[in-house]
Design brief:
Elements lengths: L2 H5 L30 H10 L4
Length: 51
């Protein structure tokens, strides 16, 4: 037989679930509002505009 046919005659050894999970340290998520108070900005822009 050719080497390719012999290669697929047996399944590989099973992989333990513990070996499939990776862990890594992450950085804190940046503030999507950039430190601004979006509620106040909305009021200034739209709520007080009719005065």
């Amino acid at each position: 037989m050719t080497p390719d046919k012999d290669r697929f005659k047996q399944l590989p050894k099973p992989v333990r679930l513990e070996d499939t999970v990776t862990t890594s340290d992450t950085d804190p998520v940046p503030d999507p509002e950039g430190g601004r108070d979006t509620e106040r900005d909305f009021l200034i822009r739209y709520g007080l505009g009719g005065l």
